[in-house]
Task: inverse folding
């Protein structure tokens, strides 16, 4: 079984690199399980609350891809802090292709 | 004046509450006039006494946006379980319980109105059913129901938005989701009111007994349906709940009592709340012609419709007060609360907080912080059904403006009456006139 590494940069600048991450879970689940500041995930990954909002590191944007329509509508509700590389972490499914992924956590909303 | 235009003039002067401080000493949220038209009370609280103790109610009212958020994000210090059970059937709890055990198949405490870690397990077993992506698949079904209900009165030129529109739409949708019989609509409506009255704090003993009997009937009906789904699963949420499993080998499934309480919660929580939002939709269309015009001109603009729904929920949140109880001494909003303090989160007041929403009384589709409203609560208890509710309201808004025109109130605004409860702010009847479009 492969294991992955992902990095969250919290809003206060703290860098949290998490290793030994199992694939086939969402980036939100990893953040929440490791107590990453700002990954509140109120709706439990239902793409319905935008409290798992992250900015994907420019180097990773292509591989992560854009949000679908439903996610984009949710991000529009927080347009105040939305950027072109905004994603909801619960909608990013981890896989080998995302080993090394780096994101910055959006301000707590 | 509504500013629903594409350019928002935030700089323009907007009507501010200010607040009449003398109100705080004089009135209670349980006073019928205040309960019906609470905004001046909220304004006074936010301005003068943000964690105001309402003596008659015996609760601390949390009125500012920031304080509400602090409370909802700390479910351990501010317990839903204690707050809710304290509120439930208050004054008559023992007798209420007895009636349910005697006639209603048992007393089933609300599995969702609990604290972590127990609550976390229950949410995990439910969240999947309500994802935004899953709800999107329901759109055609919801659209068919909404269209059918509107067509039932569209040619009559007048209707009661509550009885003819909001209630039948929401009951049919939730029945379809739960796999229940929609011909029970009248009963379900009565059952809903009986359940919500238990946290409303405005029932007397006779009403409590009548409500308890309604709840018994509801439970007996649900128990029968759940047993059926245990034996023979179908494509509905009752089946999902009965057969849901977690990874926890010790405790992989919901108990029967948990399922009964959850089905009851879904039926009720998803019913009056969403119906109230739909009535508010009609109210806004009838009273804010420029918002109505904007919607008519852009019915196919999904982004605008989504924004409309959120702003509708911000400006008139159906749920106005749910409770918490402190599990230790703690300071909130500058006030030291003892352990065991019973609190009510005033969502409507938070949504009107000038420090969070510029010109809060303006219906403004261009707010950049639209998603911050508190209508669905927040933190780990944030509404489970929010995607379903949003979808229902969005489809309703679209179908109403497509099919009806020139919607007007048929009674003066100050004659609108509201249900007597501190938990929701729900219009009782809304007579309207309209033309077919
Ligand atoms: C416009 C419609 C709705 C509004 C305004 C609304 C509002 C709310 C609010 C404010 C809460 C937070 C409770 C708290 O923090 O103590 C809540 C929780 C809840 N809602 Fe909704 N709701 C709506 C529709 C629905 C629907 C359609 C369903 C189900 C089908 C539903 C099911 C629930 C449940 C089960 C909870 C408890 C969640 C928990 O404590 O973890 N709601 N709702
Ligand atoms: S956890 Fe709610 S949107 Fe991601």
Result:
């Amino acid at each position: 079984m492969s294991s992955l590494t992902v990095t969250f940069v919290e809003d206060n600048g703290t860098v949290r690199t998490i290793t030994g991450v199992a694939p086939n879970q969402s980036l939100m689940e990893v953040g929440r399980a490791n107590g990453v500041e700002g990954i509140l995930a109120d709706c439990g990954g239902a793409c319905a609350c935008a409290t798992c909002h992250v900015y994907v590191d420019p180097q990773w944007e292509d591989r992560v891809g854009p949000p679908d329509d439903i996610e984009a509508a949710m991000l529009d509700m927080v347009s105040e802090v939305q950027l072109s590389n905004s994603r909801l972490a619960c909608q990013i499914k981890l896989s080998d292709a995302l080993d090394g992924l780096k994101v910055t956590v959006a301000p707590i909303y | 004046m509504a500013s629903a235009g594409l350019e928002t003039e935030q700089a323009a002067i907007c009507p501010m509450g200010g607040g009449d401080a003398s109100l705080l000493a004089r009135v209670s949220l349980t006073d019928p006039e205040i309960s019906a038209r609470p905004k001046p009370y909220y304004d006074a609280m936010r301005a003068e006494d943000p964690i105001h103790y309402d003596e008659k109610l015996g609760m601390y009212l949390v009125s500012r946006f920031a304080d509400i958020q602090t409370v909802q994000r700390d479910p351990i210090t501010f317990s839903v379980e204690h707050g809710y059970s304290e509120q439930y059937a208050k004054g008559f709890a023992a007798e209420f319980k007895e009636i349910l055990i005697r006639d209603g198949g048992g007393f089933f405490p609300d599995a969702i109105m609990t604290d972590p870690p127990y609550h976390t397990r229950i949410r995990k077993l439910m969240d999947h059913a309500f994802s935004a992506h899953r709800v999107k698949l329901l759109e055609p079904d919801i659209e068919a129901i909404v269209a059918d209900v509107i067509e039932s009165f569209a040619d009559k030129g007048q209707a009661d938005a509550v009885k003819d529109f909001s209630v039948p739409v929401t009951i049919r949708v939730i029945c379809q989701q739960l796999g229940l019989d929609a011909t029970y609509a009248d009963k379900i409506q009565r059952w809903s009111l009986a359940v919500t009255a238990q946290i409303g704090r405005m029932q007397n003993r006779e009403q409590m007994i009548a409500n308890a009997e309604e709840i018994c009937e509801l439970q007996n009906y649900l128990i029968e349906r759940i047993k059926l789904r245990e034996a023979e699963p179908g494509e509905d949420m009752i089946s999902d709940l009965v057969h849901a499993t977690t990874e926890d080998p010790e405790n992989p499934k919901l108990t029967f009592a948990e399922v009964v309480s959850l089905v009851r919660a879904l039926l009720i929580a998803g019913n009056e709340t969403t119906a109230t939002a739909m009535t508010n939709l009609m109210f806004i269309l009838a009273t804010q012609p420029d918002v109505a015009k904007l919607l008519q001109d852009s019915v196919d603009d999904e982004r605008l419709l989504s924004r409309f729904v959120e702003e509708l929920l911000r400006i008139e949140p159906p749920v106005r007060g749910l409770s918490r109880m402190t599990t230790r001494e703690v300071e909130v909003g500058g006030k030291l609360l003892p352990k065991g303090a019973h609190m009510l989160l005033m969502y409507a007041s938070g949504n009107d907080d000038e420090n969070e929403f510029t010109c809060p009384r303006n219906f403004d589709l261009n707010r950049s912080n639209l998603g911050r409203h508190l209508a669905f609560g927040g933190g780990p208890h944030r509404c489970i059904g929010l995607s379903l509710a949003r979808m229902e309201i969005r489809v309703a808004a679209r179908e109403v403006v497509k099919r009806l025109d020139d919607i007007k109130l048929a009674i003066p605004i100050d004659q609108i009456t509201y249900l007597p409860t501190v938990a929701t702010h729900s219009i009782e009847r809304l007579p309207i006139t309209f033309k077919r479009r």
Remarks:
- Chain B touches chain A through 26 residues (CB under 8 Å).
